Amino acid sequence: AQTVTQSQPEMSVQEAETVTLSCTYDTSESNYYLFWYKQPPSRQMILVIRQEAYKQQNATENRFSVNFQKAAKSFSLKISDSQLGDTAMYFCAFMKHGGRDDKIIFGKGTRLHILP
Amino acid sequence: DTEVTQTPKHLVMGMTNKKSLKCEQHMGHRAMYWYKQKAKKPPELMFVYSYEKLSINESVPSRFSPECPNSSLLNLHLHALQPEDSALYLCASSQGLAGVESQYFGPGTRLTVL
Fold it and tell me: Residue A26: enclosing H or E segment and its boundaries?
């Protein structure tokens, strides 16, 4: 069975700083997807960034980038130039590739506070 | 249109009531999902409707009943709920094919059971 672990329940950083959220996972699969989702106080889940396991290049999306270490089963999220609107719960998630039912397994989340 | 819509946004119901939550997507996705999320916890998968087949998380009680009238609609019928069922109910959809895309989430329905 796959598991996703986020070891930082809560973090706070000053606005404009860079912050890194940690995520590790465990799987015997070789093909899979990894995601970071953001859930602000409004509670809607928003996809931040996606990484295909077969791609060696780390995914980036504007101020958001990942450090994907497949051998170490690590998938951290870096937020550069953090903004007040980045305050949210961040979930790391895993999904097996090729299944007919695309079930996502979520970590427990990291609550991120961006301080003015 | 990359939206998943959910109605209502908020729902308060008594334990004897029957109500329904509605979810709709117009992205041509073939899989739709219901999740339950308690405060400060990750979403828990309840049901998956994919390729016209319903998959149920065995831990979900029978007082929750999904219905898929067509490929873009997924309802969740509620009956005789308990106060511990109060939560945010999230709907999501995905392409549903091998080599799949991400799941896209709706804004959720905040349910309170009195």
Answer: strand A24-26
pLDDT digits (tens, 9 = 90+) for B80-114: 999 999 999 999 988 764 444 578 889 999 999 99
CA distance B63 to chain A (A): 22
Tell me how crowded residue B67 is: count the other CB atoms within 10 A of its CB.
Answer: 14
Question: Could you tell me the sign of the dihedral formed by the alpha carbons of A62, A66, A67, A70, in that order?
Answer: negative
Instruction: Give residue A28's Cα distance to chain centre.
Output: 20
pLDDT given for residue A84 in this prediction: 95
User: Bridge-partner residues for A47, per DSSP?
Assistant: A37
Residues in chain B: 114
Q: What is the distance in angstroms between the Cα of A60 and the nearest Cα belonging to chain B?
A: 16
- Long-range contacts of residues B58-65, Cβ cutoff 8 Å, at least 24 apart: B64/B34
B88 with A43: Cβ contact below 8 A = yes
> How far is Cα B27 from Cα A105, in angstroms, rounded to an integer?
23
Which residue bears the tokens 């308060």? Answer: B12
Q: Does B86 touch chain A (CB under 8 A)?
A: no
